[in-house]
Amino acid sequence: MLKLYDSLTREKKPFQPANGDARIYVCGITPYDVTHAGHAFLVVTFDVLRRYLEYRGQGVRHVQNLTDIDDDMVRKSRETGIPVFELALTNDAIYQADLRALNVLPPHEYPRASECVEKIQEIVAVLLERGSAYEDNGNVFFDVASFPNYGRMSNESTESLAKRPDIPLAGRGRAPLDFLLWQRVTEPDEPSWDSPWGLGRPGWHVECSAMCLQYLGDQVDIHGGGSDLIFPHHESEIAQSESFTGAQPFVFNWLHVGMLRYEGEKMSKSLGNLVLVRHLLTRYPPEALRLYFGSMHYRASEEFSEGELARWGAVYRDRLLPALGIFDGDGDMDVQVYVRRFEAAIDDDLDTPTALAVLDEMAGAVLSTGSPEGRAALQHLCALFGIETP
Ligand SMILES: [Zn+2]
Fold this sequence. Notes:
Elements: E1 3-6, E2 11-14, E3 22-26, H1 37-55, E4 60-64, H2 71-80, H3 84-101, H4 117-129, E5 133-136, E6 139-142, H5 158-162, E7 179-184, E8 200-202, H6 204-216, E9 220-226, H7 230-245, E10 251-257, E11 261-262, E12 265-266, H8 277-283, H9 286-294, H10 306-324, H11 335-347, H12 352-369, H13 372-382
Parallel strand pairs: 3-4, 3-9, 9-10
Antiparallel strand pairs: 1-2, 5-6, 6-7, 7-8, 11-12
Bound molecules: zinc ion.
Zinc ion is lined by residues 27, 208, 225, 233.
């Protein structure tokens, strides 16, 4: 049985959807720049998870969002002179093309924050009514003191979180951790919507809660994103979603993917140390990237290594590709022993590095025995990494 590490309870738990299809919500990109290898690592991780659940016969409902309106989008729009939604459209098209090249399955729903403003306003209104939020001069803040579990996933007290140097908008609400649900807009070049609290736009955290609740219901089986989203984004999502619906837990299993690092730092737009997927794809086949991402455990934050990427490119070219392809062999091999080891690895919190080692070994056995049965099983398992038989 598949076990997944849950970031909230900090333990590996057997994965069992609460009801029917596995409902998976993944925090998507803010399209103010083009896709880098860190984004691809995250999306490819969830693609393997989804393909594996389906391989096990589990239905999946996968929702991933596009944050097309937030502070970063507004800032980048001002820097470039490109209107916010045009910027979103252009970068999202590049992102989607990159993911198609990597053979990532598209989510079943791909909502944009700007399309869910009605749901967002409904949540804000209810939170105000219940005393979980307060209004201040056209802004609406979530009152963190009203939610005693705030900080549980970070495993830190609110006093300690409040001392972090990177709290966004610190000091603007009554308390340092209080975050914006609705933000007043005064500048004409900033997208805005009418609301009971005046002209404004949604806060970032409530956008994801709204999209998640709108498309998947009050509770979801898996909510994921990069590990840098735990605080404040996901702590805040839990607080506002549970305060709004009254259903606990909002998420049965929190799944966070490590940050790919480059030159010792987290790969990020603000640090300017990006390795772009489209550049890598000019030098390596997409299968090499898929294998390379799979060779790192999803929770690890590893240094990007072009040497390792090249090595996996060679494994694909010299071992997997010949074993997957058409050949005349008619030998025999014990297929099930490999399949069982592969499944046991993925079942153990998506241990893809071990699973890929099994595939490499299996390819060797297929090549040495010429077993058609072995080849068919290898094709089936490689497809879980988005690697198709040419
Ligand atoms: Zn999100």
